[in-house]
Amino acid sequence: MAASFEMRCIECGKAHDMTRPAYACTDCGNLLEIALNRNAALDRLSKVDWKRRPISVWRYKELIPVGGKAELFSLNEGGTPLLECHNLADELGMKSLRVKFDGMNPTGSFKDRGMTVGITKAKELGMKTVACASTGNTSASLAAYAGLAGLKCVVLIPEGKVALGKLAQAMMHGATVVTVKGNFDQALDIVMKASGKLGMYVLNSVNPFRLEGQKTAAFEISDQMNGASPDYLYIPVGNGGNSAAYWKGFAEYESLGLTKGLPIFRGIQAEGSAPIAHMFESNARELSPVQKPETVATAIRIGNPANWKKTVRAVKESGGSVSTVTDGQILEAQKNLAKKEGIFAEPAGAAALAGLIKDIEAGEIDRTSSVVCVSTGHGLKDPDVAISQSAKPRTIEASLDALQKLLGGD
Ligand SMILES: Cc1ncc(COP(=O)(O)O)c(C=O)c1O
Ligand SMILES: [Zn+2]
Prior knowledge:
This protein has a domain at about 80-110 and about 210-390: Rossmann fold, CATH 3.40.50. The chain has 15 helices and 13 strands. It has helices spanning about 40-45, 85-90, 110-125, 135-150, 165-170, 185-200, 210-215, 215-225, 240-255, 275-280, 310-320, 325-340, 350-360, 385-390, 400-405, and strands at about 5-10, 15, 30-35, 80-85, 95-100, 130-135, 150-160, 175-180, 200, 230-235, 265-270, 320-325, 370-375. It has a 6-stranded mixed sheet, with helices on both faces. It has a 4-stranded parallel sheet with strand order 8-7-6-9, sandwiched between helices. It is globular, with a radius of gyration of 21 Å. The N and C termini lie far apart (about 80 Å). It binds pyridoxal-5'-phosphate and zinc ion (ZN).
């Protein structure tokens, strides 16, 4: 029977050896992806009662290209809630608005889906050290899974631009944390150059195995919608790995007959860090990097997205587009999610909702559509931004009188 998976170049299609670390095509330098053999996958699924497994990344083991007989390194990632947002839906006059809250993963972001697969692969390959550049969440997640697997972990982060909670996580999980006097794009450049020389396995989203874990979020959404797909998927875009992974997930699930229909993708970038949105606006064929990306949503403060080709292809195949929101719109959406739905997302994790609100107000999408917004990271990771935009606590003397006075009672 044909192999269940093949690793190949996204541009020239050249097959690459999956038993060695690889991130780019040896012929043309483009990114690699994993292709799923449909018939082999159906055969594997038919031999197990996978639908009885709890909803999680590893429920879909047969569709993930690692861990056949190897030990899995898991913290029970995935299985995150798809929350029906009635209050916001009513306010926006929408029929159905759901949020896939991936901030509920073990380290508080969707990265855990990719890291459980990526670290399992690192062990399969016999690697001793793993590394990444990160705007924060990747380092937090990688550090946790590396600790679990007993691997050394090196993370490079842009100086002064990583949310406090994420930094605390990477440090507590035992990573060697290196601060770079530069931005994320420069840090990634160093990590890629260092990987071969220093023998480190890179677990940024240029690693195709990571995206194989992240695609399970799409499987979960469909399972949580009883085998349907939403009409629209709103998703924040930084490096473009997650959006590409989601599309791969929906497309594979549909090809296997496990979901009906495919969502139109609306990728959302922050206005000051929006090179992919600029491509859609100007119909450009090539990316023009943003030299000095800026946004309050530090997780998506990326000017030269490594996965832009994968994401542009994915979003176009879905019939969608990538557009921008302002930092003000992101913070407003973050507050709305927290106050009206009880969902505390970090700023990047509210960008998708900000994009939806903008589209609804502009009449860009039909209010009767079913919409899922992906909320990618937890608000507890970035207390500074949350506190800076909230009313300060009021201080009173320690008496009931003082409290009554403050609350306006008599
Ligand atoms: C919370 C959060 N949202 C969105 C993204 C963007 O994901 P991607 O870089 O895969 O586009 C990131 C990436 O770091 C993130 O941490
Ligand atoms: Zn190639």
